[in-house]
Write a structure and sequence with these properties.
The chain has a two-stranded parallel ribbon. The protein is built from two helices and two strands. The protein has one domain. The protein is α+β, with helices and mostly antiparallel strands.
């Protein structure tokens, strides 16, 4: 069985990723693990250092966006036969 790790944020759900996933499914039994980083939802003027500067509202927004993208990808994987 092929096991694949997908780590994506903005490219999640794109046509290129979908083609790659479909090829692996067609190649035999496959298991997919998906990680969606919770990145800031807006660009800050200073360089983002990996944290949210104790801004819980920004943390919550980033988590919500990542969770939504993850749900969409799980649905897409199921529709492709994964």
């Amino acid at each position: 069985m092929g096991q694949y790790l997908i780590v994506a944020n903005q490219t999640l759900g794109g046509a290129e990723l979908e083609r790659e996933v479909q090829q692996r499914i067609e190649g035999g039994e496959s298991r997919f693990y998906v990680v969606v980083p919770a990145t800031p939802t807006h660009h800050k003027t200073k360089a983002w250092g990996g944290g949210f500067d104790d801004d819980s509202s920004e943390t919550d927004k980033a988590h919500d966006v990542a969770e939504g993208r993850l749900g969409q990808m799980i649905d897409k994987l199921k529709s492709l036969g994964a």
